[in-house]
């Protein structure tokens, strides 16, 4: 009976994901998974979706993503505190657990499906010249859609944050917080207790499955004179195997890591499908006292006795601040929002990592990941029974390299390019999901890649680590359900074009090593449609190329940056408290002053670990809050005056008392 239920659940999950009809093996895989594995994979079930909420909690956390999941766990460790986590999406699915299938989640129900405004500097090969900014709308947030790469960044990133006037954020301060959440499953890495730890909530392990290309990438690095080492350890420059937030072959999202184990805590409520539309801030005292949200089609309110914490991610957190009257005054007035606090930095300083898509290298042997060859019932059985095989591969990501272009000072060990080396690339699924996820036009894909659909290839994605270009986010209107306007501004700083160009050249050089030549590696040099007037392999050609298939690595961040009070663009202080408003913090990817030197999920989790400790210090050791008087709750009639009522439904007071 349990198995039947599990199969039904699995089938429902499959239906929840758009575009899966194309993969006919999925039902069989899910049935296999359900039969062999369902309860065994993770004995901890999904958390409850709390239907009846209290009217007031000590802490209200907005957004259950990478940061929000950590916050909910750590704050509810304090038995005397009641914590509410409000999440706009629902639960993750059995499909989102499968590492190989993460691209199938893009443009699905689990994705907010943001698209940037069209701009001429980048993403020219994409439909309407708009980049697709995939973001998780699900409990676990973007950690449910990400490629699970576990990279902490460079010690200099954090020392630089500290040097900007953020005491307590230097590398020596943050390292313990990286270790606090880590459960490192590689015994050799775990032995290095200076940098790694075991027993934390977040499982970090090596890839259960590698192709022969993985070892070849490592050999290519050696041949080029790089160290092969743990890039999360003492030194970053060099080559190494990727480490993943994978647990026994399946995704270890932040929800799985931090929420499932504590789902029985009585003092933690998790409300799904709850879209927060505003933070309630008392005008006179400028204190945040609750949030408005929409659930089941009804506007509701919930109050926060101590603090509201925005962990809605780098797009929604600044959006919510602005909707609540905290942001650039002129812009708020333009869209008709009453200004509570003029904070010019909200939505500004946007940083992201971009790489060059489409650097595809052909090989002569059947060694790479070709979707129609690997996705079959055998792989499904291997995944379900032995927790390995190609389905456990994170879309072919195997090896990472941190290298220096001529724009970086190599002696600093602060490299400016990360190679993401994959045993698959854009045409490996025959022009289906990758093309769709990246939003490539049919014309571009057909001209450049259709001739090598489903052939054996590998990819090297050079990712620029420290962009100088800055984007921004604006409100489209004061309607909280309207998506904000997103301006990437990629490659508007000339140095960024230079770094990426040098990254492309360095990637091409990797394919020339003996290690790669053994497989017959050669660059797929079909000229790009908009660049074919330029001679191949020239700087002019590369400069054109980088603006075509510009690939976000989905690290949008820094949109509500942390900084000292003397910095007018700082949105939060080094304790992550919003300037100008009491009782409100932002704790997620938005608060980074500058983007970290690598993939950012691990740093976001670190930020939340540290943020949770700061909150505990504030309240448990008697900070300002201890002396605060208990605020009396607005009555229903007061709520009406605050216009919190969904008049259409004639709801008088939607709070469940
Ligand atoms: C496709 C993809 C691949 C990536 N790959 C990697 C990788 O391999 N390694 C890596 O280190 N990083 C990767 N990243 C980046 C990393 O996952 C994110 O930067 C990180 O998860 C961000 O955490 P966050 O807490 O700031 O936001 P999120 O995890 O995005 O969480 C925000 C949460 O808030 C919710 N929310 C938003 N608005 C509201 C609202 N109004 N009301 C209620 N809830 C709301 C969202 O639904 C979401 O659950 C990837 C990201 C993506 C999208």
From TrEMBL:
Domain Glucose-methanol-choline oxidoreductase N-terminal spans what residues?
136-159, 313-327
Annotated signal sequence range: none
Enumerate the InterPro entries for this protein.
FAD/NAD-bd_sf (IPR036188), GMC_OxRdtase (IPR012132), GMC_OxRdtase_N (IPR000172), GMC_OxRtase_C (IPR007867)
* UniProt KW keywords: FAD, Flavoprotein
The keyword Flavoprotein is annotated on this UniProt entry: yes
Question: Would the keyword Flavoprotein be found if you checked this record's keyword annotation?
Answer: yes
Q: Which GO terms describe its molecular function?
A: flavin adenine dinucleotide binding; oxidoreductase activity, acting on CH-OH group of donors
For this entry, the protein name equals Glucose dehydrogenase
């Amino acid at each position: 009976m349990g198995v039947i239920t599990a199969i039904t659940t699995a089938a429902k999950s499959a239906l929840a994901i758009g575009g899966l009809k194309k993969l006919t093996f999925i039902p069989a895989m899910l049935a296999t998974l359900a039969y062999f594995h369902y309860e065994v994979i993770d004995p901890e079930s999904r958390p409850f979706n709390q239907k009846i909420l209290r009217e007031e909690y000590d802490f209200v956390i907005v957004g259950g993503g990478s940061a929000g999941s950590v916050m909910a766990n750590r704050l509810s460790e304090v038995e005397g505190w009641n914590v509410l986590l409000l999440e706009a999406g629902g639960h993750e699915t059995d499909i989102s657990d499968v590492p190989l299938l993460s691209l199938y989640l893009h443009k699905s129900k689990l994705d907010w499906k943001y698209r940037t405004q069209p701009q001429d500097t980048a993403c020219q090969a994409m439909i309407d010249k708009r980049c697709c900014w995939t973001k998780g709308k699900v409990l676990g947030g973007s950690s449910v859609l990400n490629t699970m790469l576990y990279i902490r960044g460079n010690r200099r990133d954090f020392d630089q944050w500290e040097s900007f006037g953020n005491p307590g954020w230097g590398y020596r301060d943050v390292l313990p917080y990286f270790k606090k959440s880590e459960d490192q499953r590689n015994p050799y890495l775990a032995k290095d207790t200076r940098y790694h730890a075991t027993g934390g909530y977040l499982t970090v392990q090596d890839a259960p499955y590698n192709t022969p290309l993985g070892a070849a990438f490592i050999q290519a690095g050696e041949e080029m004179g790089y160290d092969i080492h743990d890039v999360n350890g003492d030194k970053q420059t060099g080559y190494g195997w990727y480490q993943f937030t994978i647990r026994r072959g399946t995704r270890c999202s932040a929800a799985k890591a931090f929420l499932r184990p504590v789902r029985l805590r009585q003092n933690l409520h998790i409300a799904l499908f709850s879209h927060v539309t505003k933070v309630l801030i008392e005008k006179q005292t400028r204190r945040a006292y609750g949030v408005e949200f929409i659930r089941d089609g009804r506007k509701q309110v919930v109050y926060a006795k101590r603090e509201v914490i925005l962990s809605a991610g780098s797009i929604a957190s600044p959006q919510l601040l602005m909707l609540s009257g905290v942001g650039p005054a002129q812009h708020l007035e333009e869209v008709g929002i009453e200004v509570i606090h003029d904070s010019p930095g909200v939505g500004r300083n946007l940083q992201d990592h971009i790489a060059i898509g489409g650097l595809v290298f052909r090989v002569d042997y059947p060694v790479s990941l070709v979707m129609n060859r690997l996705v079959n019932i055998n792989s499904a059985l291997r995944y379900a029974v032995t927790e390995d095989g190609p389905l456990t591969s994170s879309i072919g990501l195997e090896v990472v390299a941190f290298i220096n272009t001529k724009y970086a000072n190599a002696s600093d060990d602060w490299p400016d390019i990360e190679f993401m080396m994959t045993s698959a690339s854009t045409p490996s699924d025959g022009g289906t999901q990758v093309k769709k996820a990246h939003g490539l036009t049919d014309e571009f894909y057909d001209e450049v890649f259709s001739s090598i659909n489903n052939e054996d290839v590998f990819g090297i994605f050079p990712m620029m680590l420290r962009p100088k270009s800055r984007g921004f986010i604006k409100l489209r209107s004061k309607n909280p359900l309207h998506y904000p306007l997103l301006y990437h501004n990629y490659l508007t700083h000339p140095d960024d074009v230079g770094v990426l160009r040098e990254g492309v050249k360095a990637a091409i050089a990797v394919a020339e090593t003996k290690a790669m030549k053994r497989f017959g590696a050669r660059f797929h040099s079909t000229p790009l449609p908009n660049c074919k007037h330029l001679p191949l392999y020239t700087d002019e050609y590369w400069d054109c190329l980088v603006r075509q298939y510009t690939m976000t690595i989905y690290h949008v961040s820094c949109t509500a940056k942390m900084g000292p009070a003397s910095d007018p663009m700082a949105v939060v202080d080094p304790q992550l408290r919003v300037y100008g408003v009491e009782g409100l913090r932002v704790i997620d990817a938005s608060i980074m002053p500058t983007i970290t030197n690598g993939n950012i999920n691990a740093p976001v989790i670190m930020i939340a670990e540290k943020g949770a400790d700061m909150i505990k210090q504030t309240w448990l050791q008697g900070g300002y809050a201890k002396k605060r008087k208990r605020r009396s709750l607005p009555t229903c009639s007061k709520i009406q005056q605050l216009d919190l009522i969904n008049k259409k439904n004639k709801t008088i007071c939607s709070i469940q008392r």
